[in-house]
Amino acid sequence: WYQRRVRGSLMAQLLENRDVELSLACSYLNVNPVSLANLTSSEQFATFVPDVDEVKKWAQLSDQLKVEKDQTKVLDQLQKELQSLVFVIDNTLSLADIFLFVALHPVLLSWNEKQKAKYFNIYRYADFIQNQNFAKNFKELAPKKKVILSGLSATTHPSLVVASPQETQPKHQPQQTEQPTENKAQPETQKQQNQKENKNAPQKQPKEKPAQTPAQESSNEGSPSALDIRVGKIIEVQKHPDATSLYVEKIDLGESEPRTIVSGLVSFIPIEELQNRLVLVLCNLKPAAMRGVKSFGMVLCASNSEHNVVELITPPGNPHWRENSHRR
Fold it and tell me: How high is the pLDDT of residue 324?
């Protein structure tokens, strides 16, 4: 009770004069009527503020975005930090995400295509937050354009590419016209003579193919084959020692040793349902430290639009598992 009261008091200070953030937080937790007292007394508020110090850190960073001279430095920092994150604390939506989204939204609305490409991790993050139900009243960041995530590999990072209609159309090869029929009727001796002349003629050098532009390279990276998705078996799972919402799993992927993967599934899936479970794993993500434990991939799940129901994606096909096998 005491910790809950202290947490509420600290968050009340952060939310003072932040009417938009307060409204979004109440909307996400279904708190009605909207008020600071109702929000901090909500039963779900503790999970919405999993770490007070972390929330304060992200709130301060969000405030720096509003200072023009600090903006570029903060954006460069966010581009790196959001590289492997869906949400900023324990990979679960929290009050920190609301602070950050509200600060980012007006900045992103003013961006041109070059800025979106430079800060693709930030744009991907904000676009995902905006598509949650509680943020539906905000002006769309990418109206009437389909955003495609591409380039997920061990050596390249995700980028946002807007596909133009021309890029989606197949390129047609020019038709070859037939040679005049009189050439076909040449005597055999004439053909042999022509062949001799062709041998003596200087050979044409093959034309070098022009180097691909960054846009073409990005388009090539957009293939689903760039995603290294494998079937794995969870052979060990335990709760993260320093994060109440995270599991630490050991997953057999047919490699020399099991992979360690950290997942924010504590609030959605009981630990006993994960043990010996077959899962789909995205393997070619850059390793990321999650509260002190390095994660080497991501367990694929699906959720509803409110993100309050999350389920593992069951691998298709034969449910039987062969130990030390490698399946893609």
Answer: 46
